[in-house]
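ok so for the tutorial part 2 we go from a plain amino acid sequence to predicted structure tokens. step 1 is just haveing the sequence, like this:
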Amino acid sequence: MWEEIGVVPAALTTSIAGRPDVSGFKRCGGIDRWRTYAINVWSQSRTVDDFRRKERRIEFYPTSIAERTAYRYQPGSDHSGDRCCLLFPTSQGSCTIDVLRISPESLVSPTDRAIRVSRVLVRVLPE
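step 2 — the prediction. this is what the tokens look like for a chain of 127 residues:
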């Protein structure tokens, strides 16, 4: 699946801020082979409501990806419009597909890239 979205599996990392384990969070991600986007998948104990409380001034847009409910939002820390997150509720909290544009030459919007990535990766996200 990672190859399908353009990330070489050998380049994947799971550390969070250099730490191998952070309570309540799991991460896997890497930079695509074109060096245009960083793509991360998070599994966390935090719920959609937790994210809404944390990002109070941020709009969450309900959407559906491969018949799964998701909430698209741009984190408050993203002042350039280069990031899009898709938040999927799960029975244990939530999962996030986080896409960050790292190449200003990329003509694909972060939202479009996040949706394409999510259509592939949603199959392995917990319910």
